[in-house]
Structure formats: structure tokens, C-alpha cells
Amino acid sequence: MNTPLGILAAGMVTAVGLDAPSACAALRGRLDGFCETRFLGPDGEWQIGAPVPLPRNWIGEKRLAHLAAGAIAELFEAVPGAAGRAALILCLPEEDRPGRPVRDAAALAARIAAIVEIPPRTRTQIVAHGRPSGLVALRQARRMLAEGAAEYVVVAGVDSYLTAPAIARYLADNRLLTPDNANGFLPGEAAAAILCAADGEAALSLAGLGLAREAAFLYNRQGEDGLDVPLRGDGMTAAYAQALGEAGVTLAGVEYRIADLIGEQYWFRQTALAALRLERGRTEFQDLWSPAESLGNIGAAVVPLMVGMALTAARKGYSGGSPVLIEASADDGACGAAVFHEGAA
């Protein structure tokens, strides 16, 4: 039997709110943070994105550090007893991602710790798998709690696609949403964090977790003559099945889902295929939320943010019900899903 993992608090720094309550209210109201950025898009027009309106114009890793520190500090304000007693798992973009905004992950973690005043000997782990990083981090957090290695675990994610190399590369690959390309994403940035514990008065608890890999990943060029292998959704279907099996529910019993649908058609097809292959017997409406509608592609910050959305919705009474399934996937085929129940485990 898996060790219970409860979510005690959430913190967010986003383009639509600099804390979790304001960000979740904006997301619920379908507000967005899209505006012209300082980066040039096609035809000399400004590229649309979702930058965070920070009080100072920090750049590079210093900007990321302040984004993440703001989200983590919000956790310790909500649960003061966790400060100094929590391990940290930091979710970051993939190491080989074009325009990766992080050069030295360890230095970034140290800078974040200095801002938040986290003790130097705090156990810290780095998970650099992009959007699904938070799901991998939840598995590690559950293991740490089961082993008694920490009383609390902070799962924090920070990322930004708003860098000159990233914009240039994704424009060249025709992957950004522009007036001439409807099949693309809007670049964003954000930080989000959740506080996990094995017990306590949790409003949301992890019930099941699944991790898998999709062979037919985005633009895979693995078929004959360099063509893409067709997507069947095998990876996400396997992740769904693992998470649902561990939680002891079927997809028909899930009340709503939250997904990192960043904008490209591939991700919508993947989610639809997984649902079509597993859902049987449901007739009621099953809502599907996506923070990308308001924030664009926020990379490694998305899973902690989606868990925070579910936590806030459960506490405020506007969730789609219980349980909720949260999914995320990366360009290289890594994908995962998690099932959460409202209330303590």
C-alpha cells in the first residue's frame, strides 16, 4: 500500500496573478495574461506571450529564482511550521530543450534557497523533464515521505519560454501561435509550488499515479521515409490506466480532468485518444480544464499549478467533483497522469 500524500497548500506566480488565490480566480474567470512581448515574431510584429508582471525587470536565472521563491514563500506563509522542515524537489525544463533558460540547476536551487531563507542543509532534488516533471516529483515526494526522509516536501516548478533563443527556435520550427500559424502555442512563464505531507488536514490527496512514454511523440520522424509514426495515444493511455488502477477507479468515475493542452493539435488528439480507449459507461458531462488557455505554455511549472488549481477548487467548492485526473506530457514522449481525491487520504 502506498504512503498517503496530502496537498496542504499551493503557491503561484503567473501572468494572471502573483499568488494562488488571485491566479486561480483569474483562471476560473477565463482571464488571460497574453500581451505583446519584447520579442519579434514573423513579419516584424511583436510575438504574443504571457510574461509575469514582476515588480522589477529581472532577467535570466535571477528572474526564475524570484518567480520560484515567490511561489515557495506562499506555502510557508500558509503553513508556517513547514519552514525549515521541508525537503525541496525543483522541477525544471528539459536539459536539451531549445532556449533552455537554466544553465546551472544547482546554482538556481541555491539562489532560490537564499531568497526564501531555506536552511543550507535542506534535502534538494532536481527533476528536469519539462511539463511532466511535477508528476515524477510527486512519485519522489511520496517515496521520501514513506521513508521518513522528510516531514514535508515542497514540489516547485519554474520555467519560461520567453527567451530569445527559444522564440527564435520555435518560430523556425513553426511551433508558435502566430497570425499565419493556428497550430502552435503561445510562450509563457510561471512558477508554482505545492506542499506535500503524509498526514494532516489535506483538502486534496494523491490516490494514483502513472508514468509512461509515447513512442509516437510529437514530430517523431520515426516512420518510413522520415515520416511521423501515427499517434495512437499508447503512452497517455498507459499512464491513465496506471493512475486509475492505483486509485481504484475507472475513467468513467472521474468527475473532471485538468490537462496541459498547450495549443497544438497533437496534445488534444492524445488526450482524446486516451479517453476514448478507457472511458466506458459514462453519460454525464466530464469537464476538461487547461491553464494554457490563460497562461500559454509554462513548461515545468504546469503540474504544480494544475494541482494547485484542483486544491483551490476543492477548498472553494467550485470543483467539478471528486476524483480529478491531472495529466501532462512532453515533446519527447514522456507522459503521466495522477488521480486526486478531495479530502485527506
Automatic annotation (TrEMBL):
State the Pfam families in the record: ketoacyl-synt (PF00109)
Q: Which GO terms describe its molecular function?
A: acyltransferase activity
Q: Which InterPro entries match?
A: Ketoacyl_synth_N, Thiolase-like
Q: Which domain of life is it from?
A: Bacteria
Q: Where is the Beta-ketoacyl synthase-like N-terminal domain?
A: 133-195
The protein in question is named 3-oxoacyl-[acyl-carrier-protein] synthase-1
| Organism (species) | Rhodovulum euryhalinum
